[in-house]
Specification:
Helix 2 (41-51) links the parallel strand 1 and strand 2. The chain contains two helices and six strands. Helix 1 (2-20) crosses helix 2. By secondary structure, it is of the alpha+beta class. It has a single domain, classed as hypothetical protein PF0899 fold, CATH 3.30.2320.80. The protein has a three-stranded mixed beta sheet with strand order 2-1-6, with helices on one face. Zinc ion is lined by residues 73, 75-76, 78, 89, 91-92, 94.
């Protein structure tokens, strides 16, 4: 399952960062995911529910920002946002395009609860 392995690597990353900062817990995890990755939000939420048990992120909230696919037409130079399944340039109809956005799979930020006496 695609989403499960994505979430597994997210959890490994955020736990490592949280431990480096001596955080008591992780309050929120903010992801940025491109629509072209075909990640299903429900599956991601489910994977998170399972994987957060017993971790520093047990009570964390998961936010996912979806990035719309964005491409450049290599024929006319037009740049445009589009649906996952329609890659053609709306200006000239060309299908020779270069994807600029939409493949993101990033941890945008995480919010940590860090004790006062640590820095
Ligand atoms: Zn074009």
């Amino acid at each position: 399952m695609h989403e499960f392995s994505i979430m597994q690597s997210v959890m490994e990353n955020v736990e490592r960062v949280a431990k480096e900062h001596h955080a008591r817990r992780i309050e929120a995890i903010n992801l940025r995911i491109g629509d072209m990755t075909e990640v299903v939000q429900d599956s991601l939420d489910f994977a998170f529910e399972v994987l957060r048990q017993g971790t520093l992120a047990e009570d964390a909230t998961l936010h996912v920002e979806t990035i719309k696919p964005f491409s450049e037409c290599l024929d006319c130079g037009n740049t445009f946002e589009h649906e996952r399944t329609d890659l053609r340039c709306p200006a000239c109809g060309s299908s020779i395009t270069k994807q600029l956005k939409g493949h993101e799979l990033d941890i945008a930020s995480i919010e940590l609860d860090i004790p006062e006496n640590q820095s």
